[in-house]
Structures are given as C-alpha cells and as structure tokens.
Amino acid sequence: MTGIMDGRVVVITGAARGIGRGHAVEFARQGAKVVVNDLGAKVDGSGSSDGPAGEVVEEIRALGGEAVANGEDISDFDGAGRLVRSALDAFGDLHVLVNNAGILRDRMLVNMSAEEWDAVIRVHLRGTFSPLRHAAAYWRERAKAGSPVQAAVINTTSSSGIYGNPGQGNYGAAKAGIAALTVIAAQELGRYGVTVNAVAPAALTRMTEDLPRWSGELVHDRFDPRTPENIAPLVVWLGSLEARGITGRVFNVRGGHISVAEGWHAGPGVDKDARWDPAELGGVIPDLVAKAAPNAGTDGVVPQL
After folding, report:
1. Which CATH topology does 9-261 take?
2. What are the boundaries of each domain within the chain?
3. In what order do the strands lie in the sheet with 9-13?
4. What mean pLDDT do residues 235-257 have?
5. DSSP H helical segments within the chain, as ranges?
6. Span 47-76, mean pLDDT?
7. Which of 165, 221, 251, 288 gives the lowest tally of CB atoms within 10 Å of its CB?
8. Does the annotation mark 158 as catalytic?
C-alpha cells in the first residue's frame, strides 16, 4: 500500500468507528503505519470495549497495511503519554497525531448538570491537549537534538463550537476551545517543524444520527455526502508532506465540500482616547453592532443584510 503517507506513522484517537475509522483506513491506504486508539465506549462516553479498535486493525491488515490497536483513555494525561509511546514502540517514530475522539451529553443550559459539562470538556478538550502535549514534547526533543522534524497535528473541532448550536453548550465550548488551541499550538510548535490544523466535519455517524438536519436529506445515487469516510481525504492530506505550508487553520468539510473557516477578527471600532462613561455607550455600541457583520449561522454562513 503506497501513497502520500508512505513511511509516516500516525496516531488517531477515536478511530474505531465513524469518522475516526475512515481516517485510519485511508491513512493506511496511503501508506501510513497506524495506531488505532479507541476505548470502545458508547456515544455518551460510558462503557468500553477493545473489540472495535481491533476490528479496524484487522481491516487495515487485510488491505496489506500495518496497524496496532490501543485502548488508552486519552483524557487521562498519563494514558495519553502511553499512547504516544505505543507508536514509538510499535513503529519507531511518530509523524502525525489526529485528535478525533469525542462524546456527547447534549442538554440545554438550564437542564445541564455539572457532571455532563465536565465529562464532555474532559474528553474533548483535555483529550485533545493530553496527546498533543506528549507528542509535542517528543518532537521538541528531536528538534533540539538536531533531528529533522516534519510532523503534523490535525484536531477535530465542530460547527457547534465555531458557529454555535443550541443544546450543545458543553460540546460547543469544548470544540471552540479546540479551535483556539489549534491556532495557539501552530504558533508555538512551528519552530520545531510541526504544523497544527483542525477540521470541523459534518457526517452521519452515531453522534449525529439523531440530529434533525439529517432527516429527509436527499442522497445522490452515486455519492452520499453524509458518509463519514468523506472527511478522511482532507485529514490525510493535512498529515502529508504536501501540506507543510499550511498551519493554524480550521477547515469545514462535508461530503465533497471543503471551506476555510475564518475566525474571530476585529470589526468596526471606536477610540475615545479616554475612559468611557457608561452613560455614553448607549450612543456608541448599537451603532458599532449595526455596522458589524452578523455572526454566522449554525451552517457557517454569514446572513446577508
């Protein structure tokens, strides 16, 4: 199996099902050696099983690729360290980290429990930070030792995080944090030869099958834009040496459609060059907001006024 990932080693979290499985198989098809990480948990994060990750490994090996399974909890800092170490032990190096694992505990804010908040933040945000922290330390050590590093990180954010979606305050907050972490990590790790990007995928998976947006959608006979495997080509390319010039960006991807998500930026402003009196702002702030572009909708599109 040869392709744009020949000779590269990739760790993928949440790789046993859905989007993550699609990543794992496509990386292998393109010549990568793959560490398939997954707890085998339910959508809400409960339970575990080592079966699903092993099944993906067997699928990759049947295709002629190389893969090993890993069942570490990536939200556990030490477990994330063992995950990175497993790639080094199995394949001797690490070139790409794909942070994909996640859970859902959807609830409106007025009904959300602290436990539901903490569980989602832990898996998504801490579960992105922890593997990234250990991988970054490895790459920094290699760079300081004079070894060339051409590494890549691809994180997984969401339209719920960068555009907003009611009922997903915990999930959206975590995903917004991941988008911000992506930009910051790209700024910090570039000196060591590491690119860091993120994708905001849209696909029909266990985590999205109950969302209204997927009901009644027309599917082309030749191509189903909802299929989770459609996300993998962009992620694989971002992990390849062809993408060395791209870092600190977030991409929307669904079916065959890819777009660059444009982040927060300063819009209309005013400077009094002195401290404001609160009473003055009633004649200032509404005018600034009126001049500013509206926030994008949940589909990422800015409404036209």
Report:
1. Rossmann fold (3.40.50)
2. 9-261, 269-305
3. 66-70, 33-37, 9-13, 96-99, 151-156, 194-202, 250-254, 257-261
4. 96
5. 18-29, 51-62, 77-91, 114-121, 127-144, 159-162, 169-189, 232-238, 285-291
6. 88
7. 221
8. yes
Is 283 exposed, middle or buried (CB count within 10 Å of its CB: 0-12, 13-18, 19+)?
Answer: exposed
Q: Which residues contact 211 (CB under 8 A, 6 or more apart)?
A: none
Pick the catalytic residue from 75, 86, 160, 175.
175
51 has a pLDDT exceeding 80:
no
* Residue with tokens 């927060």, as numbered in its chain: 264
What tokens were used for 108? 């409106």
Indicate which residue of 138, 163, 171, 240 is catalytic.
171
Among residues 158, 159, 160, 240, which one is catalytic? 158
Task: Find out whether 179 and 185 touch, Cβ atoms under 8 Å.
Answer: no
**CB-count burial class (<10 Å; 0-12, 13-18, 19+) for 265:** exposed
Cα separation values, 158 from 53, 79, 168, 179, 267, Å: 23, 25, 11, 9, 23
CA–CA distances in Å: residue 227 to residues 14, 30, 38, 214, 254: 17, 19, 20, 11, 9
272 is catalytic: no
Summarize the confidence of residues 265-279 as an average pLDDT: 96
Q: How confident is the model at residue 212 (pLDDT cuts 50, 70, 90)?
A: low
Give the predicted TM-score (pTM) of the model: 0.90
Cα→Cα distances 122→41, 102, 114, 180, 226, Å:
15, 9, 12, 16, 28
Q: Is 163 a catalytic residue?
A: no
Main-chain phi, psi angles of 277, to 5 degrees? -90, 130
